[in-house]
């Protein structure tokens, strides 16, 4: 396979938070059209990896390399990474009081497209289509971003953003947590619909159940800051069945 | 869903700077420009030029005595207050001899100024009447005929005194007497211009009236005087805006505004204060709300070097309501000492104060408030919310809230918060492709949204643009 088939590549990434190393050398190679999943117990460094890759100032990448569509991710700040096509679906999305969902999305779309008038013209219709897809009420547009949202509403808004911004590489950090089964199905539909054929998706999750609806091509298990096992979708089922302990024994 | 949702709210538009947009000045080709300084001769000259009745001339002279006798306030920003050189100020400048009824009547250079400020355009689009004051006098005035026919009076204050002396005499200085404070006394002595509005019983003035105040000369003192009377069951929304050129020396703006809301009436008074950073803005604003009347002050302070202003509502009739919604933006070398006062003097009255301030670049924003509930004002409701946002570590926010509750059964809510723009919020927004500046601006626009949503659309856009202007280059 030639190099341009890879949309997202990270090599031996190390991450520190407050001086403590939490990711200890992780490598991934995600091809165009692929969905990968990283599973692992709490505190294994999954979210730290996601935040560091998106450019969170509190998470410093101390060594390693990362490329999105061949561009060096680590030379860019959070804004630059987003503009290069990276998207992080937050585990705990932040409230922005006083800023409506519509205004927020519009600002983001405008930033992403350099304020192109054409995109903004179709924005409203696109947004309404996505509302339908994610089964959210029109009133969502006039509510303040994540302000007083339920857990499920927050996750829907994350996927709504993904679907509107159409990222080339989406990292979704525990998008399934806090969702009941109906909401999980709707959110999964949104992810499947928004995933680009020429892009990649990285799902970060504790549980296998999301992977019933969003089928991964590859599954990685992360423990203590390292990927300890990788395989096909069947690995997720095995984890569901047997937990993480057998890997723990392997890793030790 | 409304269309306006998707309109540009100015967040990512690039604004010009103050100097280009507002800070320019015209050459002075004035009909009358007196000498600097303040004394009885100046007061006499103003009153004579205006051909005022004796009672007003006497009122002015007495007010000057009070001004001279009263000490400077010992609170607020005493350093700046004590540095005011009252001998180095022009107290009365009459730019033209006759007020214009159409923009063509106004000298070209003044018309151009107001054009640049967008006043004639706003007038065409969404105002029922416009008053444009330049230095000490209203140089242009317009008012829709159908409102005139309904008996609504909208005049500059001087014309109001000439044409409706009986109403003016009854209400003028009735709630802000000359001895209220040093700057009210100063205004009372040398006042000129401002608006006089009377709305007859039951009349609903559905479209806002606007006054725009422009200072042009250096070392100018502008002392407009506004009196609004809403008779029983009437409604009115009045908007004022103001700007001035940027000079290296201070100018003084010291207005007095009195609102009288008679039984069952409604007055909203909206201010977008955008003075240049060399203006000292020391204003007294007070209102009375009679039985079941409502008064709302919507008060935005962006500009000036120092603002000391505390819009006040006396709830004197049963069931009266008052609301004061304010924002203050304190940038580099600015001090916004703003606040609110509500006096509950009748039963079943309710008030709400919402104050929001933003400080950056070493600026200082203070909230100074008083809520007083007299013993007979039982079953009243009071809500006070103060929210301060600090953009950096060098800026400052102070809150001086006072509550004196002497009645039974009063429901009180009070909240005060000081916050910073959170790093997590910034990361969330930048991870969506916004620059840090855009992200910060969006958070700030959200912070003041409870204020901007009360403004007519056009003003909300303008306000967001002004904030953006102030925020430009604030962080690297």
Describe the protein:
The complex is a heterodimer of chains A (252) and B (476). With 252 residues, chain A is of the alpha/beta class. Chain A folds into 2 domains: 3-74 and 85-93 and 167-251, 3-Layer(aba) Sandwich (Rossmann fold); 95-148, no CATH class. Chain A has helices spanning 46-54, 78-83, 101-112, 117-133, 151-165, 181-194, 234-242, 245-251, and strands at residues 6-17, 20-31, 35-39, 59-68, 71-72, 86-89, 96-100, 144-145, 169-173, 200-205, 218-223, 226-231. In chain A, a hairpin with a 2-residue loop joins strand 11 and strand 12 (226-231). The longest helix of chain A has 17 residues, at 117-133. Chain B has 2 domains: 1-28 and 422-476, no CATH class; 31-309, no CATH class. Chain B is 25% helix and 34% strand. In chain B, strands 5, 6, 8, 9, 11, 12, 14, 16, 17, 19, 21 and 23 form a 12-stranded mixed sheet that branches. A 10-stranded mixed sheet of chain B has the order 4-3-7-10-13-15-18-20-22-24. A two-stranded antiparallel sheet of chain B has the order 1-2. In chain B, a hairpin with a 2-residue loop joins strand 3 and strand 4. The model of chain B is unreliable at 1-16 (pLDDT under 50).
């Amino acid at each position: 396979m030639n190099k341009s088939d890879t949309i997202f590549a990270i090599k031996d990434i190390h991450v520190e938070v407050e001086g403590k190393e939490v990711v200890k050398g992780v490598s991934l190679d995600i091809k165009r059209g692929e969905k990968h999943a990283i599973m692992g117990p709490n505190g294994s460094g999954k979210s730290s990896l996601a935040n560091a890759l998106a450019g969170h100032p509190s998470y410093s990448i101390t060594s390693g390399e990362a490329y999105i569509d061949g561009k060096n991710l680590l030379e860019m700040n959070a804004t630059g990474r987003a503009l290069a096509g990276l998207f992080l679906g937050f585990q705990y999305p932040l409230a922005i009081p006083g800023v409506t969902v519509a205004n927020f999305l519009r600002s983001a779309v405008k930033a992403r497209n350099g304020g192109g008038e054409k995109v903004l013209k179709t924005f409203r219709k696109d947004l309404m289509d996505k509302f339908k897809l994610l089964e959210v009420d029109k009133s969502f547009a006039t509510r303040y971003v994540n302000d007083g949202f339920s857990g499920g509403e927050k996750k829907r808004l994350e996927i709504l953003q993904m679907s509107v911004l159409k990222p080339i590489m989406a990292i979704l950090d525990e998008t399934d947590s806090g969702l009941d089964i109906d909401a999980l199905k709707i959110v999964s539909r949104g992810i499947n619909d928004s995933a680009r054929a020429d892009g990649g998706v990285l799902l970060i999750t504790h549980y296998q159940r999301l992977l019933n609806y969003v089928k991964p091509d590859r599954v990685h298990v992360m423990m203590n800051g390292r990927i300890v096992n990788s395989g096909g979708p069947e690995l997720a089922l095995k984890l569901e069945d047997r937990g993480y302990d057998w890997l723990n024994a392997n890793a030790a | 869903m409304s269309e306006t949702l998707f309109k540009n709210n100015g967040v990512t538009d690039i604004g010009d700077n103050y100097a280009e947009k507002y800070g320019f000045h015209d050459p002075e080709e004035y009909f009358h420009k007196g000498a600097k300084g303040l004394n009885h001769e100046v007061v006499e000259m103003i009153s004579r030029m205006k051909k005022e009745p004796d009672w007003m001339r006497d009122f002015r002279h007495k007010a000057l005595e009070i001004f001279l006798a009263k000490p400077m306030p010992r609170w607020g920003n005493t350093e700046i207050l004590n540095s005011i050189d009252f001998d180095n100020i022009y107290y009365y400048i009459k730019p033209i001899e006759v007020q214009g009824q159409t923009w063509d009547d106004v000298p070209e250079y003044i018309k151009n100024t107001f054009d640049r400020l967008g006043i004639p355009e706003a007038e065409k689009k969404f105002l029922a009447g416009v008053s444009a004051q330049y230095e000490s006098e209203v140089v242009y005035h317009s008012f829709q005929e159908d409102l005139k026919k309904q008996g609504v009076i909208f005049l500059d204050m001087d014309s109001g005194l000439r044409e409706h002396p009986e109403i003016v005499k009854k209400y003028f200085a009735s709630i802000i007497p000359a001895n209220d404070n040093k700057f009210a006394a100063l205004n009372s002595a040398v006042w000129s211009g401002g608006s006089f509005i009377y709305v007859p019983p039951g009349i609903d003035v559905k479209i806002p009236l606007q006054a725009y105040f422009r200072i042009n000369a250096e070392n100018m003192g502008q002392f407009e005087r506004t009196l609004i009377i809403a008779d029983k069951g009437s409604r009115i929304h009045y908007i004022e805006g103001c700007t001035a050129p940027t000079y290296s020396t201070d100018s003084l703006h010291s207005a007095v505004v009195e609102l009288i809301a008679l039984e069952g009436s409604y007055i909203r008074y909206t201010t977008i204060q955008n003075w240049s950073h060399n203006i000292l803005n020391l204003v007294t604003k007070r209102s009375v709300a009679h039985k079941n009347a409502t008064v709302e002050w919507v008060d935005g302070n962006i500009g000036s070097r120092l603002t000391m202003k505390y819009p006040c509502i006396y709830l004197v009739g049963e069931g009266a309501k008052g609301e004061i919604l304010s924002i203050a933006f304190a940038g580099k070398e600015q001090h916004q000492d703003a606040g609110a006062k509500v006096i509950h003097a009748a039963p079943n009255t309710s008030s709400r104060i919402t104050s929001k301030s933003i400080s950056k670049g070493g600026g200082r924003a203070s909230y100074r408030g008083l809520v007083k509930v007299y013993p007979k004002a039982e079953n009243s409701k009071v809500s006070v919310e103060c929210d301060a946002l600090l953009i950096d570590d060098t800026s400052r926010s102070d809150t001086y809230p006072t509550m004196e509750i002497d009645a039974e059964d009063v429901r009180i809510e009070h909240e005060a918060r000081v916050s910073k723009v959170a790093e997590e919020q910034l990361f969330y927004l930048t991870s969506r492709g916004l620059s840090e500046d855009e992200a910060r601006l969006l958070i700030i626009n959200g912070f003041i949204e409870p204020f901007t949503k009360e403004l007519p659309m056009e003003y909300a856009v303008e306000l967001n643009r002004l904030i953006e202007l102030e925020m430009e280059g604030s962080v690297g």
